[in-house]
Amino acid sequence: MNKESNIYTFTFAIIMVLVIGVSLAVTSEVLQPRKKQNKNDKKMMDILSAINIDASRENAQQEYDKYIYSSSIIDNMGRVLEGDAFKIDVLFQYRDKTLLPEERRYPLFKANKDGSEYFIVPMVGSGLWGPIWGFIALENDYNTIYGAAFDHKTETPGLGAEINQDFFEQPFVGKKIIDDNGVFVSVEVQKGGAQSNDPHAVDGITGGTITSDGVTDMLKNTLMIYNKYFSSLIEDDIKKDTLDIINNID
Amino acid sequence: MKKSFFSKQHQRLITDPMGDQNPITIQVLGICSALAITTQLANALVMTLAVIFVMISASMIISILRNSIPNRIRIIVQLLVVASLVALVDQILKAFLPDASDKLSVFIGLIITNCIIMGRLEAFAMGNKVWESFLDAFGNAIGYGWILVAVAFVRELFGSGKLMGYQIIPLSWYDTMTVDGVEKSFVYFNNNLMILPPMALIVVGLIIWVQRSKNEELIEND
Amino acid sequence: MDLVNIFIKGVFIDNMIFAYFLGMCSYLAVSKTVTTANGLGLAVIFVLGITVPVNYILETKILKAGALQWLGENFIDVDLNVLSLIMFIAVVSAMVQLVEMIIEKFSPALYSSLGIFLPLIAVNCAILGGALFMQERQYSTIIEATSFALGSGVGWYLAIVAIAAIREKIRYSNVPPPLRGLGITFIITGLMGIAFMCFMGIKI
Fold first, then answer.
1. How far is CA C66 from CA A86, B106, C78, C145, C197, in A?
2. pLDDT tens, B83-136?
C-alpha cells in the first residue's frame, strides 16, 4: 500500500483524530465528578477559612455541613431571592461586564460556630493586575468583623500578594463596618498605618498600595449591598420586638 | 549474534542526556515551559513526572507508528500525539492533584511546546525501535528533570528557607533584635530575589558554568 | 485605558521572556545577530497578533463551558474545555504555516535568514503561551485579548533584539571560557529580567 497517497494520508488522519477525540472525551467524562468535587471542596475551604476553620480537602464537605447551616441569595437592593447560594460564582459575575447591577446576585452563608451565629460574605474586587477576592465573617450584630480571608491570582509577589497572609488578615478581626451613629462606613486599608484604636481602619501593605486600595474598594462596594439586607433584618427585629411589647401590654 | 537487551549503547542513551548531552544546558532545548515553576521543589517534581510520562508515551507511540505515518503530515501527527497526552495529564492532575494543577496552571499545557519532546520525536523516535526510543525518552526527560529539580532546590531553600514545604532553615535563625529602635536580623533573611523569575535564569547559568568548567570540551568558542 | 494597561503590562511586566521564560529556545538560538533577531521578533508579534484573537473566538464560542449556547438551549451544558489544548496548538501550527508561506513569497531574503527557525515558531512556547494565558486570564472582549497579544509580542521582540545587541558586543569582552555562549546569555537575561522588574507597579 502506498504510504504517501492522498487516500492513505486522509484515512490515517481521520482514524487518528477519532481515536484521540474519543479517548480524551472518555477521560474527561470519567474524571468530571472528581473535578467538580475538587472545585466545591476548595470553595467550602475558602468559606470556612473566614470563620477560622482550617478544613482540608478530605474533610471540607463534613466541616461545611457541620458549621454552615443555611445560605441565602440577595440582590443589589438587599432583597432575598430564591436559589442555591453555593452555586453562585461571584468571580464569574464580576468579570461579566454585560451584567446589569440589578442582575447581580450576592450569596450569603450563615454559620454556627461554638453556639454563636456568623454571616459569611464573599466578595470580589480588582487588585493591581487582576481580580482579588475574599470572605468576611460578621458577628450577629451585623457589624463586627469576626474573620477575614483574602486571596488573589496575579498580585506582585512580596507586595500586593501578601494580602493572603495572616499579618494582613488578622487585624480585620474586631473592626466595625458601622460607626457609632449607625452609618455604614466599611473598613479602610490605610497607607502608612492606621491608628490602633480606629475601629474602621487597618494597616495597608507597604509597596502594595494599589492592591490595598483594591481591598478597601472591594470591602466597601460589597458590604454596602449586604448592609442593606442587614438593615432590613434589624428593622424586622425591631418591629417584632415592638409587637411583642405591645402584645405584652395587652 | 543476538544483541543484548541492555547493551553499552543502551546505557549511553540514558546517561548522555544527563551529562554531556543534557537537553537544557548543552542543547538549549525545553527551557521555556519549565523555569517559571521552579520556585517550589514540589512543583518541579510534579512537572518532571508529567514530562517523563508525556515524553515516554509519545516516544513509544510514535516509534510504534513510525512505519505507518505518512511523511507529509508527520509533524502534525507528532504534535497531536503530544497534545493529547498533555491534555490527558492535565485532566488527571485536575482530578487528583488539584492544588498542584492550580499552581502549574498554563505550564502543564506548555509541555506541548517543550522543544525536547518534539525534538526527540523527530530526531530519534521516528527512526528507532520502541525499546531504544523508550530509553532515549527516559534519559532526556531525566536530564531535563534534574536541572529543573536542582534549580527548584536552590530557589526554594534560599528563597523561602523550605524544601517541599517543610522548614529547613531553623526558625530561630530568623530571630530579630531591636537596635536603636530598628529591628534587625543577625543570622538569616529569606532571599526574596530567589523567588522572583530572573534568578531561575541566573541559577541555570551557574549550573552551566560548573558543568563546562568540569568538561572543557563543551566550551563554546564564538 | 484598560487596553493601554494590558498592552503595557504585556510588554514590560509580564514580559514573556523575563517573567515567564516563554520562547526561550528560539530566543537563545536566534539571538546571535540583531538582524535575524529583528526578523524573528517581528514574526512573533505578527503570529501572536493573529493566533490569540482566533483562539479567543474559538475559546468563547466553542470551547468554554456553556459557550455553545448560540447553537441552542440544548448545548448550554456542553463543556469542550478538554479539547482546548489540541485546538489551540492546531490553530497555531496552521497560522505559522500560513505566515511561512507569505514570508517566503514576499520576502525571500528574510525567509533565507530565518532559515529553519520559522517552522520552530509553531513550537515557540510564547505563541501557545499567549493562547493559554488568554484563556486563563479570561479577557472580556476580543480587543482586550488582541491588545494583550500585541503587548506580549512587542515585549518578546524587545527582549530578543536587546539580547542580540548585547551578544554582538560581548564578543569583545573577556568572559570566563566555561561561561561563553550559553552560560553568559542566561545570566545576562537574568540581569535584564531584574532590570525589567522596576516596571512593576506601573499603572496608567
1. 19, 21, 6, 20, 38
2. 899 989 988 888 888 888 887 877 888 888 777 888 888 888 888 888 888 888
What sections of B8-129 are H helices per DSSP?
A: 8-18, 41-65, 74-96, 98-104, 106-109, 115-120
Amino acid, res. C166: I
Phi-psi region of A220 (alpha: psi -120 to 50; beta: other; left: phi over 0): alpha
In angstroms, how far is CA A32 from the centroid of its own chain? Answer: 24
Q: Is B16 contained in some domain?
A: no
How many domains is chain A built from? 1
Instruction: Please judge whether A210 and C82 are an interchain contact, meaning their C-beta atoms are less than 8 angstroms apart.
Output: no
Q: Is A20's CB within 8 Å of C86's CB?
A: yes
Instruction: Please name the amino acid found at residue B11.
Output: Q
Which residue stretches of chain C are H helix?
2-8, 24-29, 34-58, 84-106, 108-114, 117-120, 125-137, 142-170, 182-196
Give CA torsion, residues A202, A210, A46, C19, to 10 deg. Answer: -140
Residue with cell 454585560: A98
- For A97, residues 6+ apart whose C-beta sits below 8 A from its C-beta are C140
Query: Is residue B11 assigned to a domain?
Result: no
Closest approach of A151 to chain C, Cα-based (Å): 16
Which structural domain, as residue segments, surrounds residue B138? 22-221
Indicate whether B10 belongs to any domain.
Answer: no
Residues of chain A scoring pLDDT < 70: 1, 156-158, 250
Closest-CA distance of chain C to residue A87, Å: 15
Q: Is residue B7 part of a domain?
A: no
| Chains touching A (3+ CB pairs < 8 Å) | B, C
> Is C87 touching B (CB cutoff 8 A)?
no
Whether A48 is covered by a domain: the verdict is no
Paired with A176 in beta bridges are A144
In a domain, A97, yes or no: yes
Question: Which residue do the cell numbers 442587614 mark?
Answer: A230
Query: Hey, which residues 99-128 in chain B have their CB within 8 Å of chain C?
Result: 105-106, 109-110, 112-115, 118
CA A115 to each of CA A33, A67, A111: distance values in angstroms, whole numbers, following the listed order: 34, 10, 10
From the CA of B76, how many Å to the nearest CA of chain C? Answer: 8
What are A162-188's pLDDT values in tens digits? 788 888 888 888 888 888 887 888 888
Cα C115 from Cα B59, distance rounded (Å): 27
Considering only the beta carbons, identify the residue of B70, B91, B196 that sits closest to A27: B91
pLDDT tens digit sequence for C16-74: 888 888 888 788 877 888 888 888 888 888 888 889 999 999 888 888 777 777 777 77
- Domain-embedded: residue A29: no
Q: Which domain holds residue A230?
A: 68-249
Query: What is the DSSP-derived secondary structure letter of residue C66?
Result: T
Number of domains in chain B: 1
Q: Is C202 in the A-facing interface, judged by CB distances under 8 Å?
A: no
Query: Cβ distance B38 to B121 under 8 Å?
Result: no
For residue A167, is it within any domain?
Answer: yes
A35 touching B, CB under 8 A? yes
Cβ distance B105 to C136 less than 8 Å, yes or no, reads yes
Cα–Cα distances (Å) from C183 to B149, B213, C143, C165, in that order, read 19, 11, 39, 17
